Amino acid sequence: MLKKGYLSPSILTCDFTCLEKSIKILEKAGCAWLHLDVMDGHFVPNISFGVPIVQSIRKKSLLFLDTHLMISEPEKYIKAFAKAGSNLLTVHIEVCPDIQKIVKAIHSLGVKAGISLNPGTPVELVEPAIGVADLILVMSVNPGFGGQSFMPVGLEKIKWLRKKIDHAGAKTLLQIDGGINDNNLHTVRKAGADSVVVGSALFSDPDPGNKASEYLKIMEL
């Protein structure tokens, strides 16, 4: 039986001129997590936002801040993002191959640690994170831009990792991010995702709050 599921709305595609309003809508809908996509224009071909935005959000919200560092050399910045108010810092295996070292460094800051992998990265590379990291994030799109289509390879990785995590009896959460919408949310949840990141499907809806409520019900199944 799956553990309690967490919907983690990504603010990447929301209207930043109304950011506080968008967050309050998600809070009212019952969301407990908020996904923050930090991009540096180097590890991924786009730039999003940094520490000041995380600080501002923390001042306005008590939501669990799920901060995804899609950046090169994240070890240089984890302290700043932890201090800004992040509850979870997820880094990429592609730039942090020493899982034990980076997880230890993040934990030393008093926050939870996640390890992510891109669609083209072999899933076996993150197996050592099971039971070590608090979360493993499977990317089901190539990171860098919101609104992309879901890549089936993400689903296969979720299924593989679900079996490995359950066999190990580990508490590591399994998260998926990229192209999640009405057509596949139930499928990835059923496949074993504990946490699901959703962005465009929420903020492109005329009523993001109602859509978030619908998705939260699926995560509770």
How would you characterize the overall build of this protein?
The chain is an alpha/beta fold and 221 residues long. The chain has a single domain (29-219), classed as TIM Barrel, CATH 3.20.20.70. The chain contains eight helices and eight strands, in the order E-H-E-H-E-H-E-H-E-E-H-E-H-E-H-H. It has helices spanning 19-29, 51-60, 78-84, 99-107, 153-168, 185-191, 200-203, 208-219, and strands at residues 6-9, 33-39, 64-70, 88-92, 112-117, 135-139, 173-177, 195-198. An eight-stranded parallel β-sheet has the order 1-8-7-6-5-4-3-2. Strand 3 (64-70), helix 3 (78-84) and strand 4 form a beta-alpha-beta unit. Helix 2 (51-60) runs parallel beside helix 3. The radius of gyration is 16 Å and the shape is globular.
Short description:
With 221 residues, the protein is of the alpha/beta class.
Question: Which structural traits does this protein have?
Answer:
about 220 residues; eight-stranded parallel beta sheet; alpha/beta; about 35% helix; 8 helices; TIM Barrel
Mean pLDDT across residues: 95
Strand content: 15-25%
Strand order in the sheet with the most strands = 1-8-7-6-5-4-3-2
What ranges have pLDDT less than 50 throughout 5 or more consecutive residues? Answer: none
Which second-level CATH architecture applies? Answer: Alpha-Beta Barrel
